[in-house]
Amino acid sequence: MSFLDLVKKRYSCRDYMKKEIPDDMLGEILEAARLAPTAKNSQSFKIVLIETEKYKEKLLDIYDRDWFVSAPYVLVVCGSKVDSWVRLQDDRSHYVVDASIVMDHIILAAVDNDLGTCWICAFDPEKTKNFLNLPEDFEPIAMTPLGYANDNPRDKKRKSIDDLIINKD
Ligand SMILES: Cc1cc2nc3c(=O)[nH]c(=O)nc-3n(C[C@H](O)[C@H](O)[C@H](O)COP(=O)(O)O)c2cc1C
Predict the structure, then answer these.
(1) Measured in angstroms, how far is the CA atom of residue 165 from the centroid of ligand 1?
(2) What is the mean pLDDT of residues 33-55?
(3) Is 169 within the bounds of a domain?
(4) Mutation test of ligand 1: which of 16, 111, 118 has the most ligand atoms closer than 8 Å to its C-beta?
(5) Is residue 69 part of a domain?
(6) CATH number, residue 10
(7) Global pTM?
(8) What is the pLDDT of residues 91-117, one digit of tens each?
(9) Is 158 part of a structural domain of the chain?
(10) Does residue 160 lie in a domain region?
(11) 14 vs 12: CA distance, rounded Å
């Protein structure tokens, strides 16, 4: 599969099968996350791997959608301001950028293994922090269920290239 075909295949999956994910497949997806680039190679992220069945009620408390708990796993990418790179000129910490790249590696590696995912950021951040019992400086940035899709891809509604690209003159 070409990279562009992989990108086209990805969609936000909002229903999953109960089917187990082989350990080596999960390992490959986590390896893709481990190899993600981070600013100044700080690698100041953690991935919380949650077995959905064990924590169904807690998960529904942080993001209340039935489909959210229909896959075997939920993965939460967390970032830390403490060790991440900060741009001097405007004091901007890049931990959210780093964590987002990690999540995208997870999501594209999942597609490559015929698994479905869905970016989720509309979770309750405080409840999530309490539930995950994270080290103090870490905060949850994004999460996704991980499992075999039980729904169908929809057409991608996207702006045209002309709407998105500015040719600098
Ligand atoms: C940063 C980010 C946060 C998102 N948060 C949610 C979310 O909380 N719940 C949800 O159902 N979808 C969420 N989405 C999925 C988007 O709605 C989806 O990617 C977009 O509508 C395009 O559809 P597609 O992913 O199927 O191509 C999120 C996507 C991104 C990139």
Answers:
(1) 22
(2) 98
(3) no
(4) 118
(5) yes
(6) 3.40.109.10
(7) 0.98
(8) 999 999 999 999 999 999 999 999 999
(9) no
(10) no
(11) 6
